[in-house]
Specification:
Elements: H1 3-21, E1 39-45, E2 48-52, E3 58-66, E4 75-79, H2 85-94, H3 96-100, E5 103-105, E6 111-114, E7 122-129, E8 132-137, E9 154-159, E10 173-176, E11 181-182, E12 190-197, E13 203-210, H4 216-229, E14 236-245, E15 250-256, E16 260-265, E17 279-284, H5 316-321, H6 331-334
Parallel strand pairs: 1-3, 10-12
Antiparallel strand pairs: 1-2, 3-7, 4-5, 4-8, 6-14, 7-15, 8-9, 10-11, 12-15, 13-14, 13-16, 16-17
Bound molecules: copper (II) ion.
């Protein structure tokens, strides 16, 4: 990249940041602005993202349904102007340096993006997006140790037109800080909830429905196994959440959780072979007004120290990797020494 291009990219990014910073506080102009229907449906089948439309900049909703038979992720990266899906797909087969050259802004903790999603699930995340074209990429590992993005799981999402700044009405706020995840009283698992990072660090939220007698720790071990080898995860189902949420920022999740037992965690806070402080389990009863009985499950579970790629690894995959070996089902596979493919740097 030459200096002129770099300067232009920086300017574009700066302009976008300024636009977002200048937006009124959530809801401030709700009474005077006609709401724009600002949502897009994305479906995944056969290791593809089918993007059904585009979005306006500002506050925008992504509703993603995974109709495939394995777990996928949706990394979002703002692309340089003019970059096409074909170019992105080609770069994904070449590796990170090639991908980096197409990205205007390295994805990192920001306003929140969809989190890992299991087969048969739908998650809806409302976030802030600036105008431009975003690349959608999945870095879950395929059975042949190739990340899905390199196998074609790449798409683009266009964000353009007039801005939308009306925040969704929230039934409550799920707050994540440097010590835990805090659920609103009267949480029913149904409706739209704000997810706010009230800590000083970047956090995330991932929610899993757990099968009978399976702990969150065991299921996450299985998920980790999936992310490394492409084998199916057992013991539960990832029903969504918010990834890449920076300190002080708010996103929204729209949930439709049925009665059952759930685990939750902030994957970006995993620093060792145990669940982070920001984790726990709750049970939703059949009664829609039942509050969850929330328990923190982090300190009770520890596992063997796991060798990872080393301190240079950053980002979500590295975090998930740290869970390797703590789930009983995953331990044997972890010993095989597979490694998760490198993903776009998050910083
Ligand atoms: Cu995938």
């Amino acid at each position: 990249m030459n200096t002129t291009q770099r300067t232009r990219s920086v300017a574009v990014v700066a302009a976008g940041a300024a636009a977002i910073l200048c937006m009124p506080p959530a809801g401030a102009d709700a009474a005077t602005s006609a709401p724009i229907r600002n949502s897009v449906a994305i479906t995944t089948t056969g290791m593809n993202y089918h993007v059904h439309g585009g979005l306006h900049p500002g506050i925008a909703s992504i509703s993603w349904t995974n109709q495939d038979d394995e777990i996928h992720m949706m990394e979002m990266a703002l692309l340089k102007p003019g970059v096409t899906q074909t170019q992105l797909a080609t770069a994904a087969t070449k590796g990170d340096k090639a991908l980096d050259q197409l990205v205007a802004e390295q994805p990192g903790p920001g306003w929140g993006t969809p989190n890992l999603l299991s087969p048969g699930e739908t998650e809806t995340v409302t976030t802030h997006l600036r105008a431009g074209t975003y690349g959608l990429l999945c870095f879950v590992m395929g059975k042949d140790h190739m990340p899905h993005a390199a196998m074609g799981m790449v798409a683009t999402l266009k964000v353009s037109g007039p801005a939308q700044s009306v925040a969704p009405a929230a039934a409550g706020t799920i707050s994540i800080d440097d010590n835990g995840i805090h659920w609103p009283s009267g949480f029913t698992g149904k409706g739209t909830y704000a997810v706010r990072d009230t800590g000083r660090k970047d956090h995330a939220l991932s929610i899993a429905r757990l099968d009978k007698s399976v702990s969150l720790l065991q299921f996450m071990g299985s998920v980790n196994n999936t992310m490394q080898t492409g084998s199916a995860a057992h013991g539960g189902s990832l029903v969504g959440g918010v990834d890449a949420l920076a300190a002080g920022r708010t996103a929204w999740v729209t949930l439709d959780l049925s009665a059952g037992r759930y685990g939750y965690l902030s994957p970006s806070d995993i620093t060792g072979p145990q669940l982070p402080k920001q984790s726990g389990e709750f049970t939703l009863g059949a009664s829609p007004t039942a509050s969850p009985s929330v328990s923190s499950s982090s300190s009770a579970h520890t596992g063997p120290v796991v060798v990872t790629d080393g301190p240079a690894t950053t980002g979500k995959s590295a975090n998930w990797l740290l869970l390797a070996g703590i789930g009983a089902a995953a331990a044997a596979v972890i010993g095989g020494g597979t490694s998760v493919g490198r993903r776009l740097r998050r910083r």
